[in-house]
Amino acid sequence: MDRSIPQEVIRRRKRKTVIIAAAVAVALLIGITTLFSFLRSGISAKDIDVAVVDKGEVDISVSASGKVVPLSEQIITSPIASRVVEVYKKSGDKVAVGDLILKLDLDAATSDYGKMNDELSMKQCKLEQQGVTVKSQLSDLRMQLAIADMKLKRMAAELKNEHYLDSIGASTSDKVRQAELNYKVESLLYEQLKQRYSNEQLTSSANIKMSKLEYNIAKKSVVLMGKTMSEAQVRAPRSAVLTWVNNQIGSTVAQGAQLAIVSDLNDFKVEGEIADSYADRVSPGAKVAVRVGNQTLEGSVGNVTPSVKNGIIEFTVMLKESSSTKLRSGLKVDVYVINAISENVPRLANGSYYVGKGEYDLWVINGGVAQKRRVELGESSFDKVEVKRGLHVGDRVIVSDMSKYKNASSLKIRK
């Protein structure tokens, strides 16, 4: 028959089981702690970006922000105060030279144009009438002058006769003096009439010139109004893309208000902005690198706005490859204005770690370990940083963000 197991044996078995379980738990805890410690002291190679120090050229630059805009853009404004009555094109449409974009209400302008034409006709009639009047007045004065000249000649002949008769005793001194007086009076009248004729010529010429000037001004106003009337039929000034149009039919527009914008979307430029503290580093003609995604486009500073607005200076960048397929109107880009070149210097790839020249704690990989090293960096370009000291050509440096390891001095690189 079966025998019962003594209690002492059962207790020994339980004690043994507990000891084995405790030993396994301790071993497991030690393993986990060791693994955790290993994980904390190391970093995966796939989680870091590594750059190798080399030697070469660094285009020293300052960074700015920029926006891609069409190289050629034309704003069409309203030539008159009116309202939109018809719209024939929409934003995004391609337009050719002369294509009708929209139509403005011309009723008031047509009425004003007709009134101006009537006033011009009246001025022309007035000018012609004035010419006839002046011609008649001058003709009358010339006739009076001719008559006065003949009378003066007759007085001169009578004076001569009186002098002759007086010399032969057939006349008296009173008659001679009377003849002389008559001659002097007629001479003065002749000179007066002659001066009047001259003055009338000058006055008439000035009046006619003034009337012609008024007529010409009115004529130019009519021509300008006619041109304005033709421009009220808003047409495309060039073959391009209609990037914006006022499509609110019935809306009132003031003279000079924007009606449409046509842009050439085949070629582009960049409008840049930079802090005014870098004003001395941005000048017309300076070389520029523009980062569009992962592509770099070369260009140069076209012009710099002389004024400063809210601590910002604006400038234009003309691109060598202005028709690059990477460019889109309104695209935000990084702009780097190059103002100096350092040749044959140690350099490191630029990255998020770099915030300006000075001292840095960088991680240098040696075998399977990354060690923190104090280095000094100088100026930079958009892709390279000048190394002043602390690194040598061939050193492999981590250039990704390592801020969470700032308290460590070395790290294992796990594959």
Gyration radius over CA = 50 Å
> Oligomer, anyone?
single chain
Order of helices and strands: HEEEEEEHHEEEEEEEEEEEEE
Output the strand order for the largest sheet. 3-10-13-12-11-14
Annotation field: number of helices:
3
Number of strands: 19
Distance between the termini: 65 Å
Structural class computed from helices and strand pairing:
alpha+beta
Shape: elongated
Helix content: 25-40%
Largest sheet: 6 strands, antiparallel, barrel
| Uncertain stretches | 34-40
Query: How much of the residues is beta strand, in percent?
Result: 35-45%
Overall pLDDT metric: 84
Task: Describe the model.
With 415 residues, the chain is of the alpha+beta class. The protein is 37% helix and 36% strand. It has 3 helices and 19 strands. It has helices spanning 7-40, 107-167, 173-231; strands at residues 42-44, 50-52, 54-77, 82-87, 94-95, 100-104, 233-235, 240-245, 252-253, 258-275, 287-292, 295-304, 312-319, 332-349, 358-366, 369-380, 384-389, 396-398, 410-414. A 6-stranded antiparallel barrel has the order 3-10-13-12-11-14. A 4-stranded antiparallel beta sheet has the order 7-6-4-9. The radius of gyration is 50 Å and the shape is elongated. The relative contact order is 0.19. Mean pLDDT is 84; it is low at 34-40.
How do you describe this structure in short?
The chain is an alpha+beta fold and 415 residues long.
